[in-house]
Amino acid sequence: MRLSARLLGLITVLAVAVTIGGPAQADRPAGGAVHANGPTNEIIPAGGPTGEIVYATRGAGRLVALTFDDGPSPGWTPALLDLLRDRQIRATFCLLGSQAQARPDLVRRIVADGHAVCNHTFRHDSVAGWTPEAIRADLTATNEAIRTAAGDPGLPIRYFRAPYGAWGASPQVAASLGMTALAWTMDPADWDGSPADVIAQRLDAQLHPTAVALSHDGGGDRAPTLDAYRQVLPRWQRAGWGFDLPAVTGGPYPPACTAPAWRAHDVYTRGDRVSRDGRLYQTRWWTRLEDPLTARWVWADLGAC
User: Fold this and answer.
1) Which terminus of the chain has fewer Cβ atoms in its 10 Å neighbourhood, N or C?
2) How far apart are alpha carbons 89 and 66 in whole angstroms?
3) CA 134/CA 170 separation, integer angstroms
4) Which of the following is catalytic: 190, 216, 217, 272?
5) C-alpha–C-alpha distance, residues 101 and 149, integer Å
6) C-alpha to C-alpha distances, 242 to 20, 66, 269, nearest whole angstrom
7) At residue 270, what are phi and psi to the nearest 5 degrees?
8) Per-residue pLDDT tens over the stretch 215-245
């Protein structure tokens, strides 16, 4: 009887311990983790973006990530896309929700050319003093506007950039929505009215391995910006510089290709872009049956999506 009483007591203690320990696990969101992010307490899914701010390319070495803010705009985005296609370069476009709504045709062209898409808020407001709830509403509305304009409800939007670099609680909110906060390390101040030669000089002076370059294709007269990039891009390529997308936090993630998938019996003309096995390719000339994976004399490999 004495042994049975001891066993009963031990069982009771274990039961209490399990009961005390249980709710802490039950309250944890399935598939996620609660990150301590100051007053935001945003729930960031495990394996997703971490809330850290990115300042570099995905790869190492003589690489630069081109990023363009405040578009799309009918005056400047088409010419910029033409330039990037001519140079066989992929970039990241930080789009305003209001501009995406106004020019869905340009959003679709950006996406079809395989460029990465970035959320830049709906109307270019500073979110530094906003509550997490207000930031979430704005970023969600912006993502919806971009995806509606693109005609793709599942369009990958991997990045968020806060206007003016005024972050506040936005990196954590963006992470909870699946986006990495994207900063920059090159700023030619193409918004200050300087001529193209000055902007080009600033770009050359600031160029460094794994750089993220900030420029604009909207929000003002961007003719000097376009002319500056027409000067520097051929020069950088001749010097052995390559072009990458910005890094992302968390992951690993599946490829986020936006260009149409390659199809063997479709006809492609010079400059067309396709995705194939998680990579982006661009045709050098007319082709029909050549596979991008093997016909490197026909297809230029622009890198992983």
Assistant:
1) N
2) 9
3) 10
4) 216
5) 6
6) 56, 11, 24
7) -55, 130
8) 999 999 999 999 999 999 999 999 999 999 9
- Report, in angstroms and rounded to the nearest whole number, the Rg of the chain calculated over CA atoms: 24
Residue of 69, 70, 113, 272 with catalytic role? 69
Name the token pair of 71. 């578009």
Report residue 225 as tokens. Answer: 């910006």
- Rounded alpha-carbon distances, angstroms, from residue 180 to 56, 88, 157, 170, 172: 12, 25, 9, 10, 9
**Residues 37/169, Cβ–Cβ less than 8 Å:** yes
Q: How far apart are the first and last CA of the chain?
A: 71
- Work out whether the CA dihedral 223, 220, 218, 60 comes out positive or negative: positive
Contact present, 247 and 58 (Cβ < 8 Å): yes
Q: Which residue matches tokens 């896309």?
A: 81
pLDDT in tens, 47-85: 899 999 999 999 999 999 999 999 999 999 999 999 999
In this prediction the pTM is 0.85
216 is catalytic: yes
CB count in 10 Å sphere of residue 199: 24
Q: Tokens at residue 258, please?
A: 């936006």
